[in-house]
Amino acid sequence: MESEITREEETFIRGVKSPYSDDVLAHFKELILEKRDAAHDDVNRMRSQLADAREQSENDTAYSHHMADAGTDAMEREKLYLMIAREQKYIGYLDRALERIENNTYGVCKVTGKPISKERLEAVPHTEISIEAKLKQKR
């Protein structure tokens, strides 16, 4: 999967190496892989629910299914599609974090160039920015 980092960011980050040891990076890699596996499981479960819902709607006849029920079913399917898309986006973030671990740039804020705290990385292991940068974005 190709990273979505801009050339400017890549140039900036290339000169900065991760502030964390190989052991710490291995810990974060394991954490990210666990979250990635869980997200893949969620996507597969939701896809299975979609397939079941589609199969059930195909089996219903026009007279056995009320219009309001059909609308509710369609809304539930749409919600599943959105949840799948959200999980896939999250998986993409996790994949990019794994790339940063491999490139030894994990834990470096792409905005400030400063180390991202371990506490923040534990809470949001796919983050690319520090709390400081995040707070500045919200202003």
Kindly state the percentage of residues in helix: 55-70%
| CATH level-3 fold name | Four Helix Bundle (Hemerythrin (Met), subunit A)
Topology as H/E string? HHHHH
Distance between the termini: 33 Å
CATH domain class name: Mainly Alpha
Individual helix count: 5
Q: CATH homologous superfamily?
A: DksA, coiled-coil domain
Q: On the 0-100 scale, what is the average pLDDT?
A: 84
Quaternary class: single chain
- SS-based class: mainly alpha
Number of domains: 1
Query: Which residues form runs of ≥5 with pLDDT under 50?
Result: none
| Estimated radius of gyration | 21 Å
The largest sheet is: none
Q: Per CATH, which architecture?
A: Up-down Bundle
Description of the structure:
The chain has 139 residues and is mainly alpha-helical. The protein has a single domain (7-138), classed as DksA, coiled-coil domain (Four Helix Bundle (Hemerythrin (Met), subunit A), Up-down Bundle), CATH 1.20.120. The protein contains five helices and no strands. The longest helix has 38 residues, at 22-59. It is elongated.
